[in-house]
Amino acid sequence: MKLSARKEKILANVVEHYIPTGEPVGSKALSEKLGYSSATIRNEMSELCELGLLEKNHASSGRIPTSAGYRYYIDNLMSTSPLGDMECAKLEAMLRAGAKTPEKILENAGGILARLTGCATVVTTPADAQAKISKVELIPASSKTAILVLLTSSGILKNCVCRIDIDINENVKDRFKEIVDKYFLKAKVAELSEEMLEEIIGALENEDYAIKPLLSALYELGKEAGESKAYVEGESNLLAHRDAYGDITELMQFLQQREQLSRLVSFQETPQNSRMSILIGSENYFAEMEQSSVILSRYAFGNNAMGTIGVIGPTRIDYAKLIPDVEYLTDMVGRLLSEHYSEDEE
Amino acid sequence: MKLSARKEKILANVVEHYIPTGEPVGSKALSEKLGYSSATIRNEMSELCELGLLEKNHASSGRIPTSAGYRYYIDNLMSTSPLGDMECAKLEAMLRAGAKTPEKILENAGGILARLTGCATVVTTPADAQAKISKVELIPASSKTAILVLLTSSGILKNCVCRIDIDINENVKDRFKEIVDKYFLKAKVAELSEEMLEEIIGALENEDYAIKPLLSALYELGKEAGESKAYVEGESNLLAHRDAYGDITELMQFLQQREQLSRLVSFQETPQNSRMSILIGSENYFAEMEQSSVILSRYAFGNNAMGTIGVIGPTRIDYAKLIPDVEYLTDMVGRLLSEHYSEDEE
DNA sequence: ATTAGCACTTGAAGTGCGAGAGTGCTAACA
DNA sequence: TGTTAGCACTCTCGCACTTCAAGTGCTAAT
Fold first, then answer.
1. What ranges do the domains of chain B cover?
2. Whole-model pTM?
């Protein structure tokens, strides 16, 4: 669908007026700005309504953009400008300030983005379903407690504490190492399965049966390394945009369900071509997100591991400003994480 | 302060009527219920107002309890009944379901309590400032990355990934172990200080200087083990109680600041006698919490480590129901964590 | 000490009305 | 044929006004 130049001008003006003010825009205001009479504008707007790009709140009020309207605007009309050097430097400094561990980098990034944009942000932990288990360590912490550490080929590291009911002596360690070498090492995390775990446990000899908890825990760690987990930050920022929502309670409740969020984010990953993904209002799969837009971008580090960072706000968020913000922050996060994990460069 | 039996009856009835309905209660309703004439009730209520236990929203509407009113009610008039066996069993099952790691136990408990109470919950990680560092492990993960593990005498375990710019060979390990043994092992985490860290780093010989990041990271881990961190769950539940708040935005924003929350919770720890702590409305130190109440309880496990679990809701929450809920859940969490960590029993 | 009665206060809810913004449609115009 | 002017119509919003119910404080009687 290609609009006439004049329709595009009108659409762009409606969007750009509506986003900051939240007020429906009428024909008169545009007529002054664009030099056509209000009647002409009205005719054009009426057609834009029929095309599904604009809509009215009630029979007689100004027009506001529909999801499709925003979509057309973003894809064809909007121009974004990259962040200024000053701002980049400031963000980088903030991001580096608390960057002691990968978890903190992500948490920090979410918080910074939330403050920067005044919206809620979602951050997912890095994961790579294609990664292979490259290292497993078992460290006795006390006589019957051990720490299990797992490292994948893409640089993802997971660990947990595990309790078993026997002494962790050399024998146990050896037996564990044997099983790990045979079944877990070099295995793709995506290919770990309940069945496989049960098979391994089933094959345990009697005296080795006590190490079952270790194997279960290891399996869990592997699974975790393959699946990214979503965290939300700055939800309360959305309360400031309450006027853009009918009832904001639904949305807030939705944002507290991590599994749902993971799905929300993973849905975006289908378009393989671009790193950015924008879903506007009704484009979102979830009914609770109908009045919201999501701007997502992927970060990557190490060998193929990646996660997502994004903002969630009302459909009338300032796309032109937020898109570069999100983009820059994901870049930085990827870079910081690489610095943390990489072995060879730097 | 001791009230007459009749005043107590009136106060109790006001509180018990106001909590579920949220409506100010007038003299007429009480007169029917208590058998005194409305005028008598009015006189008594007027005195309760002067005592600061009741107040009016506006010159001519029913009375509602003040913070002091709730306080008197809770301390002297309220009776709580323990949870039923059925409910206990259900909660225990839910809690055990996802209880694979200590972190998950806590997260899970927060979520369960939030759903159970319809309020926000706050959970702090276990910490013990008096604990000593009992074990430190350094595990090379790749040529220049290592995992650092720290265990305290009270059973708290912390770990992180650390990157240094030299190969982690036997030499480095030995040197690190030497320093750990000398300065960190058996040290109280509360006594770790920046100065001490700088002193240690200052004393490094040239060739050892590269292990500085390891020492910094270790210091951070020790600090973390001594300080508990607060997490909130179920904030969106508070939106359902919006009518109990003027503007809920302030509160929501407050709940997102982890440092503030830690303070909110640590303030409660002063009364050493009891495990439970209830702060009502203006009893809270923070202005943002003026319209909220907090019910906190401590869990403990292992050797002296403890944390807090609690609910946050409007001042007119159902104390009689929530107090046993919180109590039971903290007990369970303590027990579950003990099962995870304990070495000797079970 | 308790109660009945009465005047008064206050907020909530409903009504009516006019202003303002904006639309759709028709007819005139270049 | 595309554009514009004009007009009747619609809808929201704020304001003033009324009414109603609930509840109070106070005084006087019991």
1. 5-77, 85-126+229-345, 133-225
2. 0.89
